[in-house]
Amino acid sequence: MISTFVTLYESDNAKLIMERAPYFMDGVFMHTEIKHFSKSLYKEYQDVWNSVVVYLKERGVNNIYALPTDEMAEKWETKFGFVDTGVTFEGQKIMKFVEK
User: Fold this and answer.
1) To the nearest 10°, the Cα dihedral for 16, 24, 68, 64?
2) Contact 67, 89 (CB under 8 A)
């Protein structure tokens, strides 16, 4: 098995999926799907994201990455502590979570 996917959060407007691929990556990729952006979703997702970070750190996962699919996704990831690594994968930016 190369990758496993686990849904960590799902609501009517958002979904957060973790991809783990231990054979070729030290860490996890987070895939976020946002259907309708709103301030209330942002606030709700902040609590979810903080819990996810704690969950991953407790399990020894220190490298958390994202592959935003468009500018809106990149802006969303940036709001939650992801920064551009300067590396791309198949034309997509690889972003890394940096704890503040």
Assistant:
1) 60
2) yes
pTM to 2 decimal places = 0.86
Q: What is the DSSP string of 18-77?
A: EEE-TTT-SSEEEEEEESS--HHHHHHHHHHHHHHHHHHHHTT---EEE--SSHHHHHHH
**pLDDT digits (tens), the chain, 100 positions:** 588 999 999 998 889 999 998 776 789 999 998 888 888 888 989 999 999 999 999 999 999 999 888 888 888 899 999 999 999 888 889 999 998 7
User: CB-based burial of residue 81 (10 Å sphere; 0-12 exposed, 13-18 middle, 19+ buried)?
Assistant: middle
CA distance 98 to 64: 8
Fold of 4-97: Aminopeptidase (3.40.630)
